[in-house]
Write a structure and sequence with these properties.
It contains 3 helices and 6 strands. The chain starts with a helix and ends in a 10-residue tail after the last strand.
Length: 130
């Protein structure tokens, strides 16, 4: 509860809660973007779905909505650190426009062991693409 209170009151963080409007406003999970904290301006994206929302095909639409909100707020580039064994997350983030970050990219600093870093690449023809 204390972490959530701080997270919701931090002005430098995007925190979007996904809600199922058809099921009594059931909270499905959230997408957030936090400052990456590196020498170059970037934002770290994360997605978390409640256990009851998993396996229902909701991860991609929830992440896409969060990415759109981040782009609208100017929170780009958007990065994601994903554990190398988390195949479900790797698949979802790739489907939503995230690609492996080149090792020589300045946004590669601070990567933890066992994780790969991805960067959001706007898709041609989207409202935030080229």
């Amino acid at each position: 509860t204390a972490w959530m209170t701080r997270a919701l009151s931090t002005p430098t963080r995007l925190f979007a809660i996904a809600v199922d409007r058809t099921a009594a406003q059931t909270r499905l999970g959230y997408v957030r973007a936090d400052p990456a904290g590196h020498d170059t301006p970037a934002w770290m994206a994360s997605l978390c779905l409640h256990s009851t929302a998993r396996g229902r095909g909701l991860a991609q639409p929830v992440l896409r909505a969060g990415v759109a909100l981040a782009a609208k707020a100017g929170l780009m580039p958007l990065l994601a650190d994903i554990h190398i064994t988390n195949l479900a997350s790797l698949k979802v983030f790739a489907a939503c426009g995230f690609a492996p970050l080149p090792a020589d990219c300045p946004h590669a600093a601070g990567l933890h062991s066992g994780f790969d870093r991805f960067i959001y690449i706007p898709v041609e023809g989207t409202h935030h693409g080229h």
